[in-house]
Design brief:
There is one protein chain. The chain has 515 residues and is of the alpha+beta class. It is built from 16 helices and 19 strands. The strands form three sheets. Strands 12, 13, 14, 15, 16, 17, 18 and 19 form an eight-stranded mixed β-sheet that branches. Strands 8-7-6-11-10-9 form a six-stranded antiparallel β-sheet, with helices on both faces. A five-stranded parallel β-sheet has the order 2-1-3-4-5, with helices on both faces. Helix 3 links the parallel strand 3 and strand 4. The longest helix is centred in the middle third of the chain and has 37 residues.
Length: 515
């Protein structure tokens, strides 16, 4: 049976292209031009996958997917974006997107992302089917196969009820982001209370048990437990026990068990019995959370590597919990390459040809930079900004950057030969390259809503200005770069230059490319 896919993109050409590509692959596809239309359609039809543009007008892509997922929880998503914003990737990961496709995209990349997302969804569906068989297994296996912390909590409540027949049972799990204990599963407690209740560590009975990491038995009323009398508001409770759900080093939460009006008192043997049940649940929680963290980090790194070099992605993942403050000042070499006559070229070729040419150009430059252990900072229209010396250290970053510039010029000639038969205007395009070096900040800049891993410093601006001053096929470098070059490079001194935005004129040097 063919999978049903809903596509939301306000660019008519992109929408029609996606519909055509996926229809040819045998998928049942429907397209809309806004997030609001996608939500409305999802109220009447079931879909397996949603492909959505991040920058939809009105309700954006993340909001639209979230709204559709509320109505169809099992739907998976693919985000389409033209931005290499790391924060956007993090937001997509948090909302559960199964992939990100960058514009412009190749049809094969889109089909691969769709296939992978649907395959992962099938695995999740199979896991859900297996979870339905959990009651047939022993208690420990039931917890291990629960799949999510909430399901473990629900299974724990059922197991404790079977052993105690207590009228009120609740499992409170600790939310690290909120710093609070919240009810994950309960029995005999009104749903409004379950939804709204929370306890801070150290506060009330559950908070005390969580902070002190030891169980507490409260038999009788407030008069029998003066230390906790202010927290014992229900007169119906005749016996209660609260137990921390913990390993040696970590407390995952607290289980609270209460008997109302009548029933035997809790004893030390009750604690031992509850410990046996809770320890099995805690083992399951530990395994599930470790697996979730591993998968989350793997998915995050995979998505990040579509935006930045693999070395950058790995470094970002080392600081995954504090991305906003990742950064340092280091001696770096910056290369800026700018295509000449691109504006004139675009006026004489179709956008589809322009997109394909730029993809070839970006692919060629990326391969050269990565082979030299450089870092691709960003694509900017028809220009490329690259860094040498971090996050992967390079001993002779200036020499490497100049060699990369020469390789780019040489490979660009081959690229022109490939595209010249398509349109004669490709004969007119060229590349100007600027290189500068010095103390530069490298790291994340931005806000909680949007981050960009990039470089900041005067030498970054100088490299860009040199690229704009360079003629087609010319490599202009700063004096600091020349100072670190060996004798084998042919360097010519240019006249003093004062590019726009630079206060003082400075000597500019031209490095002759390989013949």
């Amino acid at each position: 049976m063919s999978k049903k896919i809903i596509v939301a993109d306000d660019e008519k050409y992109v929408l029609e292209l996606i519909l055509e590509i996926l229809s040819e692959e045998g998928f049942l596809v429907k397209g809309v031009s806004s997030g609001e239309e996608a939500v409305e359609l999802s109220m009447h039809e079931k879909f397996n996958l949603m492909i959505v543009d991040a920058s939809l007008p009105g309700m954006d892509g993340l909001e639209a997917f979230s709204a559709v997922k509320e109505k169809q929880p099992h739907i998976v998503g693919i985000l389409i974006t033209g931005s290499n914003d790391i924060r956007l990737a993090a937001g997509a990961i948090k909302q559960g997107f199964g992939g990100i496709v960058l514009k412009p995209f190749n049809p094969s990349d889109l089909v691969e992302s769709v296939t992978n997302a649907l395959r992962n969804a099938l695995v999740l569906e199979e896991n859900a089917r297996l979870n339905a068989l959990i009651p047939l297994y022993r208690l420990g296996e039931k917890f291990m196969l629960a799949g999510t912390p909430k399901k473990v909590a629900e299974a724990l409540v059922d197991a404790v009820f079977q052993q105690t027949h207590a009228q009120k049972i609740s499992v409170m799990l600790y939310d690290k982001d909120e710093g609070l204990l919240r009810i994950a599963a309960a029995r005999g407690i009104e749903q409004d209370v379950v939804n709204d209740a929370f306890v801070e560590p150290g506060d009330r009975i559950a908070g005390w048990v969580f902070s002190h990491k030891r169980p507490l038995i409260l038999n009788g009323g407030p008069e029998s437990n003066p230390e906790f009398a202010s927290f014992m508001k229900s007169k119906d409770i005749v016996a209660a026990v609260s137990l921390p759900m913990k390993t040696k080093d970590v407390v995952f939460g607290v289980i609270n068990v209460s008997r109302l009006k009548k029933g035997p008192l809790f004893k030390q043997s009750s604690i031992e019995m509850l410990n046996i049940i809770c320890n099995q649940a805690v083992m399951a929680l530990e395994g599930i959370m470790a697996a979730e963290e591993k998968m989350e980090r793997l998915r995050a790194q995979t998505l990040l590597e579509r935006y930045v070099a693999p070395e950058v992605a790995k470094k970002l993942m080392l600081h995954y919990s504090d991305l906003l403050h990742l950064g340092e000042i280091r001696y770096l070499t910056v290369l800026f390459a700018d295509i000449r006559e691109s504006t004139s070229l675009v006026r004489h070729i179709s956008l589809e040809i322009a997109k394909s040419f730029l993809n070839d150009f970006y692919g060629m430059v990326t391969d050269i930079i990565f082979q030299a252990r450089g870092t691709l900072d960003k694509f900017m229209g028809d220009a490329v900004l690259a860094i040498f010396g971090a996050p992967v250290y390079i001993d002779k970053s200036n020499e490497v950057a100049v060699s990369v510039a020469m390789d780019i010029l040489a490979k660009f000639k081959d690229l022109k030969k490939k595209w010249s038969p398509v349109n004669r205007y490709f004969d007119r395009v060229g590349i100007g390259i600027g290189i500068s070096s010095g103390e530069i900040f490298l790291g994340n800049v931005g806000s909680e809503q949007r981050l960009d891993y990039t470089v900041i410093g005067s030498d970054v601006n100088i490299a860009q200005r040199l690229a704009s001053e360079a003629k087609s096929g010319q490599i202009l470098v700063s004096a600091d770069v020349v100072k670190h070059l060996p004798d084998g490079f042919a360097v010519v001194t240019s006249r003093p230059c004062q590019p726009k935005g630079v206060e003082e004129p400075f000597d500019v040097f031209s490095v002759m490319p390989n013949p």
